[in-house]
Hints:
Layout: E1 4-6, E2 12-15, E3 20-22, E4 34-35, H1 41-47, E5 52-53, E6 57-59, E7 72-76, H2 98-112, E8 116-120, H3 128-140, E9 145-150, H4 156-165, E10 168-173, H5 178-185, H6 189-202, E11 206-213, H7 221-228, E12 236-240, H8 244-247, H9 256-274, H10 276-282, E13 287-290, H11 291-296, H12 301-306, E14 313-316
Parallel strand pairs: 1-6, 2-7, 7-8, 8-9, 9-10, 10-11, 11-12, 12-13, 13-14
Antiparallel strand pairs: 2-3, 3-4, 5-6
Helix pairs in contact: 2-3, 3-4, 7-9
One iron/sulfur cluster binds next to strand 5 and strand 6.
Amino acid sequence: MAKTVRVCHYKKLKIKLNGDVYPCCTSYPHTKLGNIFDEDIYDKIENSDVICECPMFKSIKRTPEDKIDLDYIHYETSNICQATCVCCTQSKNKMPNENSHLSKIKEIIEYYKPKNIIAIGGEILVQDKAFNDLFDLKQKYPEMKISTITNLCVGKERLRKAEEIFDKMTVSMLGFTELTYKNEMGLDFNKTMDNFMDLYKNKKVKLSPKYLAMPTNLFEIIPFFNWAVNLDVEKIYLHCIIELEHIANFNTRFLYWTKTFEKVEKQIKDIFEKNQELLISKNKHFISIHKNLAEKLNISQEYIDSLNLNNIVKITV
Length: 317
Ligand SMILES: C[S@@+](CC[C@H](N)C(=O)[O-])C[C@H]1O[C@@H](n2cnc3c(N)ncnc32)[C@H](O)[C@@H]1O
Ligand code: SF4
Ligand code: SF4
């Protein structure tokens, strides 16, 4: 596929937890534009040239005709979260300058008025300032589309306000029974499911359920997928933790993990096959399966093609 040639930072900005600003999530060191606390950050954003190339884009030198018109600002809030997920890659330390960090980002958003905001914690739904800033932005600029990733395990008052803010939410789950969910995340499965179905029925927020598979919750990806595949949601993510390879040792004498994954493979493939027609009727990219998990479950591109699901199911990174 031909690459889109553009001035990348005139279309998207990614602001990291330390305030560094890049043109995209890849954040190659040579593409750093500055830091939100630089006095001349707006000049740096607008007067830098980013020469870069990736599989999708080629970023070229600006011309006087190019004007900044951001499709996206993607930013990170603090790692504060009410959950205790065993796999979480983030430290739970409070940011020393969280308030000024968030205020500066809000200022940058109001200055550029991007079409889309992607804000990710930690857990934004329990972070008062990050949450209220987004609420304020949505009130002022209702046309801005705001998305996040969340565990959704909050009280009804927060949920109602979240429904006002977010156009899209990806909801991460690390289990699909009360016990596993409690053990993996330290949260209440019924509360999350109740919230999910509450938003689902109201249809204001586009929802994408995401399962994060790991050895200790592996079998529950089956009831999760069975549930999610029948929902009218934006997308379903079947993902796995980054450490899967290291903690599931496939070279043991009696092939514990090989046999375990074979059982899961059979049942996941049954779901794909039973729902083949329903999936084809979605007519869009509907399921994203992480390549490491796809490999363990023998869900290859050939298998996807054999079910005529090549536009529906994508193996992603
Ligand atoms: C760090 S969380 C922050 C947002 C929110 N608290 C949540 O968990 O959905 C962002 C994403 O990272 C994923 N994640 C957490 N631990 C991971 C791990 N060890 N490997 C890969 N992804 C992970 C979660 O499933 C979630 O979708
Ligand atoms: S070319 Fe790709 S990696 Fe480089 S800045 Fe643009 S989007 Fe990012
Ligand atoms: S809900 Fe998200 S941020 Fe919170 S502990 Fe779990 S993975 Fe980490």
